[in-house]
Amino acid sequence: MPLVARLARRFRRSVFQRRGCAIAADCQIAAGVQARPGWRGERRGEIVVGQGCELADGVILDAWGGRIELGTRVFIGPYAVIYGHGGVTIGDGTLISMHCRILSSDHFIPSPDRKIRHESDVLKPTVIGADVWLGAGATILGGVTIGAGAVVGAGSVIKRDVPGGAVVVGNPPRLIRQR
Ligand SMILES: CC(C)(COP(=O)(O)OP(=O)(O)OC[C@H]1O[C@@H](n2cnc3c(N)ncnc32)[C@H](O)[C@@H]1OP(=O)(O)O)[C@@H](O)C(=O)NCCC(=O)NCCS
């Protein structure tokens, strides 16, 4: 890798470290990536990125005072967004395609005399196993566990757990086969 690119990579890593993110030394972080730990009351959020991860242009990791943890060699494609309110964990070697959305909270839905905007978040930890592939634009809602080796088709919306090795597609998702 050319010297300028190496220096740019090191600079971006140091910027994220100053913001409180723990990014392993050999990660590839594209220029347009944003990573914000954020706060929940007195608690500072955490973002942990394991060795050999690649974050493409436009990726947003926004922990909102929760925690986002990527294992080793995770790839996150362009413009994917991860919200860590209730905690998001992603296993080793997992492939998150472009424009995926991974959530870990809901808003409490109040009676109509109260504003949704003013209700608190309902925290729902999301766990994505190792060697998972999320197709382009898949949405993973809070509280879901996706088992190791599963595949989620492009554009799917996942609200329930997906067993390891399952290939699921659509909204609502259906199982098309087991790997
Ligand atoms: C999930 C996926 C891998 C399955 O591929 P496949 O095994 O070749 O599946 P098939 O094409 O045989 O489709 C099987 C069935 O699932 C349906 N299907 C496949 N992908 C679907 C999707 N993303 N959403 C809804 N239905 C889908 C097909 O229409 C077909 O339905 P039918 O049996 O009623 O005709 C693929 O369709 C997919 O979504 N790939 C994501 C590609 C991507 O996001 N790449 C980003 C770059 S990394």
Could you characterize what this model shows?
The protein has one helix at 3-18, and strands at 21-23, 28-29, 34-36, 39-40, 43-44, 46-49, 54-55, 60-62, 67-70, 75-76, 81-83, 88-90, 95-96, 101-102, 105-107, 121-123, 126-128, 133-134, 139-140, 145-146, 151-152, 157-158, 166-169, 174-178. With 179 residues, it is mainly beta. Strands 2-7-10-13-18-21-23-24 form an 8-stranded mixed β-sheet. It starts with a helix and ends with a strand. The model has no long low-confidence stretch (mean pLDDT 95). The structure holds coenzyme A. Coenzyme A binds at residues 97, 135-136, 151, 153-156, 167, 169-170, 176.
Structural class, from secondary structure content? mainly beta
Low-confidence sequence ranges: none
Strand order, sheet with most strands = 2-7-10-13-18-21-23-24
In angstroms, what is the radius of gyration?
17 Å
* CATH top level assignment: Mainly Beta
Order of helices and strands: HEEEEEEEEEEEEEEEEEEEEEEEE
Describe the protein's topology.
Elements: H1 3-18, E1 21-23, E2 28-29, E3 34-36, E4 39-40, E5 43-44, E6 46-49, E7 54-55, E8 60-62, E9 67-70, E10 75-76, E11 81-83, E12 88-90, E13 95-96, E14 101-102, E15 105-107, E16 121-123, E17 126-128, E18 133-134, E19 139-140, E20 145-146, E21 151-152, E22 157-158, E23 166-169, E24 174-178
Parallel strand pairs: 1-6, 2-7, 3-8, 6-9, 7-10, 8-11, 9-12, 10-13, 11-14, 12-17, 13-18, 14-19, 17-20, 18-21, 19-22, 21-23
Antiparallel strand pairs: 4-5, 15-16, 23-24
